[in-house]
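We keep the chain:
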Amino acid sequence: MYGFDILIDKNLKPWLLEVNVLPSLSSSSPFDKMVKTLLICDVLTLVGIRGYDKKKVHMGTEEDKKQIKEAKSFTVEQLQEMRVLKGNE
């Protein structure tokens, strides 16, 4: 992942200032944390790693937890049916 610093002038023309090979992912504010969290989620989605509903994993029934532990053998469609994976919302 690269970090691009871009300046937009008064004519809305973008100017590339620098490219960071290893951008900082630390956050200095709640907004910064939200932006970087969404960025990481998008990057993981692009490489095929899908999110899951953490509350359902930790608060589900014992049967749900057992199914989630065995989820490696399920297809994406089956995981979505079990509501472990989020859909394309």
Remarks:
- The helical segments are 30-46, 54-59, 62-69, 76-81.
